[in-house]
Structure formats: C-alpha cells, structure tokens
Amino acid sequence: MKWTVCIIGGGPCGLLAARELALRDVNTIVFEEHDEIGEPVHCAGLVGMKCLRELRVPEREDIVLNVVYGIRLVLPSGSTILLKTGKPMGLVLDRAKFDQEIGIEAYNAGAEIMKGHRVVGIRLMERGVKVAVDFKGERKVVLARYVICAEGMTRRITRSVFKVPKGVLIGIQEEYELPMRIEDRYVTVFLGRRYSQGLFGWAIPTRYGFRIGTASYRDPMKGLNMIKATDLVKRMIRGGRIIRRMAGFVNTQGTLERFSDANDRVFLVGDSAGQNKPLSGGGIYYGGKGALILANEIVREEDIGRNYERKWNAIFGKEIRRMLILRNIMDKLEDREIDILFKTLFSKEEELEELSDYYDSHYMLIKRILPLRLFNIAKLIFKLGPRLITKLVI
Ligand SMILES: Cc1cc2nc3c(=O)[nH]c(=O)nc-3n(C[C@H](O)[C@H](O)[C@H](O)COP(=O)(O)OP(=O)(O)OC[C@H]3O[C@@H](n4cnc5c(N)ncnc54)[C@H](O)[C@@H]3O)c2cc1C
Asked: Is the CB–ligand 1 distance for residue 156 below 6 Å?
C-alpha cells in the first residue's frame, strides 16, 4: 500500500496531523480541495496564549497580528462591561499564515500535500481505505491504510461513515483595514438576540483594523448589520475598507459520538469531529490538540481509536459536557435576563486575571470566579432564580 495515512483537508488540524506523522516517518498524503493552503479564510483567528506553544507553531509577527488583554461585553441593553487582564489573554492570528506555516512544516517533514484535490468519496476495504479524488475534473483513486477526515464543518465525507448531528450556526465576518495602526487591545463581544441567535457577535482588533462578525442560527446578516450600526463599531471602522468577507459553519453542539469507525480505519479530527468549545465555537486549539493526540496514537498503532478518544476526552470531555449544559441555558435566556446576569455578576469595569489563565477552559474559569462572587450569585438567584429554574426544567 503506497500511503499509510491519507488526510482529507488541509486546514490546521489535517496539517498538524500530517506534520506529526511525517516527523515520525509515517508515509502521509494530504488532499486539500482549494488551490492555496489557508485560503479562503473562514475564522476570526482568536486563540488563547498556550495554543501556539502547545501546537508548536512559532509566535512570529506575520502569524500573530495582535495580543489582547480582555473582553468588552456589549449587553443587549447597550450597556458595556470591561473585563481586563493584566497579562495577555489571547492572540489574534493571521489564519491564512498560520495554516500555511503548518503546511510548510508538514511538507518539510516529508508529507505530500496535494492542493486543488477534492476527495469525493471513500470506501472501506478489508485492509485499508480507497479514497476517490477529483483533480480539476480528472478522477484518481488512492489506497491508504488509514484515513483522517479533517474536512472541517462541510462534513461531506464524515457523513458517509459517521452519524452527524443537525443544527449548526452560520458565521459571517467582514475584515476592515484602517490607514493606521490601531491600539485597541480588547475583544468586543455583542450579546443579545438582535446580534446573534445562538452565539454572539464580535469585533476583534487585528494590527491595522478589525474583524467584525457574528454567528447565528438565523439571519446572521441582520445581526452583522446591527453590530455595524452600533456607535462603537461605527467608530472602529470609520475610514476603513473591507479587505475580506467570509462565511462558514460554526459548531457549538459538542463532539460526534465516536472519533473512529468500528475497524479503526477512518478517524475524525477538528471540526469534523466536533472538537469545538460549546460557548464560543472556537476549534483551533481543541482540534489542534486532537490532531497531535491522533498522530501519536497512529504511530503507536495500539487500539488507535479508543486511545485517541480516551486521551482527548481526558483533557476536554468534562469541559464539553458541562459547557453544553451552560450553552443550553444561555440559549434560553431572554435579552433582559442576559443583562441581569452579567450586570449582577460583574461591575462596569474590573480586573479578571482568570480570563487569561483559563481562556481555553470556560468550565475552569467559571469554577474559579463564581466562589469569589457568592454575594452576587445570591442576588442573581433572587432576581432570576424562579425563571431560570423554570427554563431549565422545561
Ligand atoms: C466565522 C468563524 C469564526 C471562527 N472563529 C474562531 C476563532 O476565533 N478561534 C477559534 O479557535 N476557532 C474559530 N473558528 C473555528 C475554526 O475556524 C475551526 O475550528 C478550525 O478551522 C477547524 O480546523 P479544521 O482543520 O478542523 O477545519 P478547517 O479549518 O475547516 O479545514 C478543513 C479543510 O478541509 C478542506 N476540505 C473540505 N472538504 C474537503 C474535501 N472533500 N477534499 C479535500 N479538502 C477538503 C477545506 O477546504 C479546508 O481547507 C471560527 C469559525 C468560523 C466559521
């Protein structure tokens, strides 16, 4: 068999898996349907401080466009809350450069990367997997011992082998470039149904502009226009020009039931596997870690699927389960209740160091900050208690 591993999708997760496998001399080929790695971008590019370090991607200036130090919350009523961290909270990436860097590393390590090649189907054989590929109208078939599905949220191939849940958010974003360097160091998050049904809107400062976006189950364009109509965003983008528009699906529904088929031939990683945060849809870090774990297990070749799932779930499983519950509660809150929730828990401006330490674990963040706010919680239960309980039960 020519290929030990065939990877469908040259996004960060597919390429990270390819890099790790090739570094250990595993014969690996990646098929990417687009002609360029990293393009088109469909991401806001915000990650926590440990993401690049743990995924072993250099924190170079062309990859990291900005460092942010907190979150500015815009509540449904229009009030704002500023949560600041003394140390860096997150990095704003040039997603195209980030993907390209991993692609170069994978290629230098020995992985074959086939751009402009779209996988159109896979067939499980007794001793491997047949992968059918379309290259500009020409059909090719390759045989690999293992297939890694890293095709992102399209999940076309994933769907042919695994049960895929319904219900994804549609994310849209406009990236603005301004004539001068900007000094904003806060991510702005817009809460409320007029901006998003199912998540939130955002304004993320890059080096020379802002990414303005939202993800919603319904009519994201309307949400985006509402965000752009706020005085805050009008000020941010004044004099700027749009350099990129994009759309993509966002998963906040948790992972698929399994990350591998029954015979350990096909594995899922990244968005294909649902390795995203339920409260934000962020998937670069969770999926990237998935790629590293999976590559390791393929090299070890002992009960690959089970060990991969067990190790990924040991890190993120509890977080996902708990945050799915919170996601469910957040989805049920009315705008007025969101206002009460945040205004009761936080003052108008405050230092919240934990935002930096626990950026990648919302569960740990909540666990750390709630015990310090027992008085606020008591007030919240008094204000929202009966209504919240009714919503949880129904
Ligand atoms: C609007 C929006 C904003 C986001 N913001 C953030 C954020 O700020 N932070 C964060 O952590 N995450 C964010 N995410 C999520 C993040 O983009 C994903 O979690 C991440 O890209 C997942 O990487 P991946 O490699 O699994 O999939 P992808 O990045 O989607 O890569 C999949 C690749 O597979 C290719 N492909 C698909 N099908 C085939 C096929 N049949 N044959 C060959 N190639 C194929 C695609 O072209 C693509 O290159 C955002 C997502 C959206 C939509």
From this structure: yes
Q: 283 C-alpha vs ligand 1 centroid, how far in Å?
A: 8
Distance CA 256, CA 267 (A): 11
Q: Is residue 103 in contact with ligand 1, taking CB distance under 6 Å?
A: no
Instruction: Let me know how long the chain is.
Output: 394
**Per CATH, which fold does 3-43+95-166+255-318 belong to?**
FAD/NAD(P)-binding domain (3.50.50)
Cα→Cα distances 232→122, 315, 322, Å: 49, 38, 33
Could you identify the atom of ligand 1 that is nearest to the CA of residue 215?
1
DSSP state of 116: T
Angle at 217 between CA 360 and CA 329, to 5 degrees: 55
Q: What's the pLDDT score for residue 329?
A: 87
Residue 144 near ligand 1, beta carbon < 6 Å:
no
Pocket test for ligand 1, best of 15, 164, 284 (most atoms within 8 A of CB): 284
* 173 within ligand 1 shell (Cβ under 6 A): yes
* C-alpha span between 305 and 258 (Å, rounded): 9
pLDDT of residue 389 exceeding 70: no
Distance 247 CA to ligand 1 centre (A): 11
Q: Greater confidence, 5 or 329?
A: 5
pLDDT at position 382 is: 78
CATH number among 3.30.9.10, 3.40.190.10, 3.40.50.2300, 3.40.50.10470, domain 169-250: 3.30.9.10
Q: Predicted confidence band at 104 (pLDDT cuts at 50, 70, 90)? A: very high
Whether the full predicted model's pTM is greater than 0.85, yes or no, is yes
